[in-house]
Amino acid sequence: MRTRHRGTVFVAVIAVVALLGTACGGGGAATHFALKTKNSQPAGITHGPDGHLWFTEFSAGRIARVNTAGKMDEYPLPTDRAGPFDITSGPDGNLWFTEFSANKIGRITPAGEVKEFPLPNPRSGPYGIAAGPDGNIWFALQKTDRIARMTLDGEVKEFAIPYTGPQRPNPYGVAVGKDGNIWFTEEGLSKIGRITMAGVITEFPLDPKAGPADLTLGPDGNIWFTEHYAGKVGRITPDGVITEYPLGSKKSSPKGIVAAPDGNIWFTDLGTNRIGRVTTSGDVKDYAVGDGYRQLQGIAAGPDGNVWFTETHANTVSRHTLDRSAAEGKKP
Predict the structure, then answer these.
(1) Across all residues in the chain, what is the average pLDDT?
(2) String of b and e for 80-109 (b: at least 16 CB within 10 Å)?
(3) What gap in Å lies between CA 46 and CA 56, rounded to an integer?
(4) According to a count of CB atoms within 10 Å of the terminal CB, is the N or C end of the chain lower?
(5) In terms of Cα–Cα distance, which of 233, 331, 332 is closest to 285?
(6) pLDDT at 324
(7) pLDDT digits (tens, 9 = 90+) for 217-272
(8) Per-residue model confidence as pLDDT tens digits over 32-75
(9) How far is the CA of 34 from the CAs of 70, 72, 315, in angstroms?
(10) Are 265 and 220 within 8 A, CB to CB?
(11) Euclidean distance between CA atoms 177 and 113, whole angstroms
(12) Is the dihedral of CA 66, 108, 256, 271 positive or negative?
């Protein structure tokens, strides 16, 4: 592992699900639930306010939910080929999501009512999304290299990420830190970024070929992130100290990441068809989830105390049962 500390400041519908089977691994098990719509490409996933898991279907242009028993409901979006990618629970009790292809932010109620908010600049490419501590929705604009804030009424303010070409930031994931700021990844420039509510941006460089993707707030108060080019999981403290943990395979390409109920960090690895667990002390273990190429993507902590993840190529939403005996950091 390696630790560094540096930074620069700038101002600035209903579907019936088929249970495919169970794959065991290391004290847990993966159970797969097939989507009714073929080639729908499930991507982002989150724990909703109604006790269900909500996820996006990128190619099908739908938002869907699944309960812990595997029953699914799908909701088509008003805009054709919208390309919904990431999704988060909002402070208003609704779900908010990005529409990468349609250049919109969407909102869906637990009852399935959808409203779309067009973005002010064309071809912005909204990607990662999170509910901010200020009661607004924050998201990355991958094609225009900005971090944006939207009020619940749809008013947008954008903050440009400073850079000098030709390589662009390509912001990807967004998460809220314990410090009350928004943290984001710059996949193109291999940096971790932080933006305050006032729009002050600080950047923390990684190795040039890291390719940071998703990120999450850990139980230790730090931000954890995936490096899908470098095959590592990283941790950054609120003051910018970075520690990286290499994964076990040269094929590893971690993507989604989440803090789970067992006190550990869990991530998807689309390069090895596995999900992984890293403790806050840096111990890494991975688990097989099935045969064939599955293309694991998003991951979320479920209301049942397990982790749920999407498999874009396999066209499934899956559940990995956590081993409570291996829980770290949980108080009795």
Answers:
(1) 91
(2) eebbbbbbbbbeeebbbbbbbbbbbbbbbe
(3) 9
(4) C
(5) 233
(6) 65
(7) 999 999 999 999 999 999 999 999 999 999 989 999 999 999 999 999 999 999 99
(8) 999 989 999 999 999 999 999 999 999 999 999 999 999 999 99
(9) 9, 10, 6
(10) no
(11) 30
(12) positive
The structure tokens listed for 160 are 């440009």
DSSP one-letter string for 73-130: EEEE-SSTT--EEEEEE-TTSSEEEEETTTTEEEEE-TT--EEEEE-SSTT--EEEEE
Cα 323 to Cα 223: distance, rounded to the nearest angstrom: 24
State whether the Cα torsion 50-311-24-31 is positive or negative. Answer: positive
State residue 291's pLDDT score. Answer: 87
Whether a cis peptide bond, with omega within 30° of 0, leads into 212 is no
pTM for the model stands at 0.91
Measured CA to CA, the distance from residue 181 to residue 169 in angstroms comes to 19
The two tokens of residue 103 are 């250049």
Output the six-digit token pair for 247: 């994964």
Nearest to 190 by CA among 216, 214, 169, 160: 169
Strand order in the sheet with 8-10: 8-10, 201-205, 191-195, 182-186, 171-176
Predicted local distance difference test score (pLDDT) of residue 2: 47
* Averaged pLDDT for residues 93-113: 98
Distance CA 313, CA 175 (A): 26
How wide is the angle at C-alpha 165 spanned by C-alphas 231 and 174, nearest 5°?
Answer: 45
- The widest CA-to-CA distance across the chain, in whole angstroms, is 53
**With contact defined as beta carbons under 8 Å apart, do 215 and 192 qualify?**
yes
Amino acid 247 reads L
Determine the pLDDT at residue 28. 57
The residue with tokens 């009512």 is 113
Question: Which SS3 state, helix, strand or coil, does residue 263 take?
Answer: coil
